[in-house]
Amino acid sequence: MNVKIDGKYYSGNKGETLLELARRNEIEIPSLCYKEGFEGLGRCRLCLVEVIEGNSTKTVSSCVYPIRDGIEVLTNTKNIVNMRKDIIFLLLLRTPNNGYIRKLAEEYGVKAPSRYLDMEREEDCILCGLCVKACEKLGTNAISLVNRGITKKVSTPYDDASKDCIGCGACAEVCPTNAISLVEQDGKRIIWNKTFDLISCTRCGKCYSTEEVLHHIDEQLGVKTQEYLCESCSRRLVGEKFKEAFQNLI
Ligand code: SF4
Questions:
Q1: Which of 2, 231, 234, 248 has a 20 to 30 A CA-CA distance from 46?
Q2: Axis crossing angle, helix 99-107 with helix 78-94, rounded to the nearest 10
Q3: 75: closest CA among 169, 162, 5, 174?
């Protein structure tokens, strides 16, 4: 499939979205709620682009728009840039103290008059829902978007320490604005009001995961882990086994 983006032709694969095609070809389209490996959510709307198809032009979220042969895409028209600025302005009002949003606003030259900014406001979440998606894919569906209107937020059921959360940290890892607090101290991990004991690597002694995560992985794979190894020790072990096998061959 041939797609013209900003005057140049690119070849796309069936099922690919505009944003995926653009990222694969190093074309810059901003986005906060897109993460490689997850399907697009179309929530933050920063990835808006113009699509020209036949005689019609429309504005779409590129992270959820599947490519079609022969379409033309404009990623940086005045109209698109102005819409992105409006979105950033609203995000700035919601999270006036968040470093990531402030940096984005600076990049786009977006300034909010001080009378609109509540600098006392301690909010970092932009409600993009990427953490919810990460928990659905990698965790245990422990969090969701709850409430409506101005009270909408991401939370565990009733804001309590969730019995389902395994403390994997995937939600905090994908958050584009660092809004989810994950604290590790003295062999413990605290996330979503729940404290987990961290397991040490049997080889090097480094604390690297919660017991709940390892049980979850065992359950998914239908195996029983005998030795708990951190990522680098696992890699080293594979290397050692490979070397041993190779030496036995020669
Ligand atoms: S830490 Fe808990 S809430 Fe976050 S992704 Fe893992 S299971 Fe889900």
A1: 2
A2: 150
A3: 5
Residue 113 lies in a domain: no
Q: Which residue has 């309590």 as its token pair?
A: 160
Ligand 1 site-directed mutation target among 132, 137, 164, 166, most atoms within 8 Å of CB: 166
**Pair of tokens at residue 126:** 């932009």
Residues 68 and 144 in one domain: no
Question: What range does the domain containing 31 cover?
Answer: 2-76
Q: Of 38, 55, 76, which residue constitutes the final position of a domain? A: 76
For the stretch 145-162, pLDDT in tens is 999 998 999 999 999 999
User: Residue 88: inside a domain, yes or no?
Assistant: no
| pLDDT (tens digit per residue) in 97-129 | 999 999 999 999 999 888 888 888 899 999 999
pTM equals 0.89
| 24, part of any domain | yes
User: Would residue 23 count as lying in a domain?
Assistant: yes
The protein residue whose alpha carbon is closest to atom 2 in ligand 1 is 165
168 lines ligand 1 (CB under 6 A): yes
CA of 187 to the centre of ligand 1 (A): 18
